[in-house]
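Before a colleague's protein record goes any further, I have to sign it off. Would you go through it and say whether the fold makes sense for this chain? Take the sequence as given and treat only the tokens as open to question. The record follows directly below this note.
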Amino acid sequence: MTKTGYFASFAALMGATWLLAGCFDDSDPAAAAVQNDRIRVAMLQPPRSGLTPLSDDAFKLSRWSTAETLVTLNSVGEAQPALALSWQQLTPTRWQVILRQGVKFHDGQMLNAAAVVNALTAANSAAPKPRILDGVKWQMATEGEYTLSITTQQPDPLLPQRLSSPQLAILSPLAYGSGHGVDPVNHGSGPYVLTHVDGTSSATLERFADYWGEKASASGIDVSFVPDGTARAAALRSGKADIVEAIPVAQAPLLDPERVHEVPMPRTNTLYLNTRTGITQDPAIRAAIRSAINRQQIVDNVYEKRADIAQGLLGPALPWAAQLRTPPTNRIQPAAISGQQITLATFSDRTELPEVAVYLAQQLTAAGFSVKQVVREYSQIESDALAGKFDAFILSRATVLDSGDPLAYLYSDFACDGSFNIAQLCQPAIDAALKQAAVIPAGHERRVAIMQVEKMILATDAAIPMLHERVIQGESQRVIAAIRDPRERSLIDSNTRIQAE
């Protein structure tokens, strides 16, 4: 780094530190003593929808342990009791749910079947609906004080997993019907009470003394929303924050390695190849592209070794995938390449993707292709990508949606009528395998079927997985038991605390 560059970076870092000082002000000794066991968090994105649980803001409420769902998911995506103690499928379309008793909402109301039906009805009738309910039609009814039924229009073997979505959090009845959306302030049921939200700047939570489960170890949580990555890293370095979301790759080497934790994400950087038009409709050309890709070079140079080389579409955030994966067999041999032109496209909104495109272009050129690159903002390129106007498209794609199950992603991207089928892939055998997997209940058999679908897709070379991304989480030396969750649903729970000094 040049001297000028060094001082410019230093100035930016110092500016970020001063920026954070206003967010985490401990200049008052008395206030500092009171706040000594409070957890200070610097988060990436501010609320977009007033922290309503019917939006993506729901994941913030979940990560702060203030709003709770009927069920949670374990590491392999199996449903576990939370506000619901048990559930039973009575018929292919009717489920019965038994609730936990003695749960008090933060405003003093008690959890019962009527409160749950009220919350789920609000989600079902919202416009737009929570993402987890796309294409889902159901009806809820109380069957007793702590028992309710859910009837679906079509059989839904993933209904328990669906109920784990933070967008289906159960709030007190007083949170709904105000005419101003759903208000989560003082209306959750978790170990922390959301007491105050300062627009898109900060949020304050306090320990809930009447929590039904293990009481929170910390007295409260102080959240600041800090979109600037340099500022978030500076907050960790200066001791202004105890937990920091999404530290940029470029900032991680500047921090104490013991304070930096990499968490595999269910997100795969994939090269989609057009199977319907252009030169990539030839399977041998697609095989040649697969053979030309040097994944290690991209991981080392673009992601600074903070990513995992992909062996398939589903990565280490799904720990069962590698155990059940078998590689495709009898693959097409690569074609000889001698100057064939390929159009390689991606978008600029994710800063690493244009750089990935540069390395891919170099690799393909070395293999004999003539490469034309197209890079635009996502909003300006999505329609062309979905219409199949490019030979190849680089996409960072979430492989697990809100149910914790990857089948929805596989269907969306690779079924004949998939809504996000950039590869334009349409093979009846893959569609049949997708439909077969969809009716299998959650568990080992369903996971085996999902991996068979992955194997079939990989054999087509319609999608070439390159790497699996990680999120970098920062934790100060004061914090104990912060949660490192690949699904980004959990961050702080009752056991997360600040160690005594």
The two ends are 38 Å apart (CA to CA). The chain is about 30% helix and 25% strand. Confidence is low (pLDDT under 50) at residues 1-22, 28-34. The longest strand covers residues 260-273.
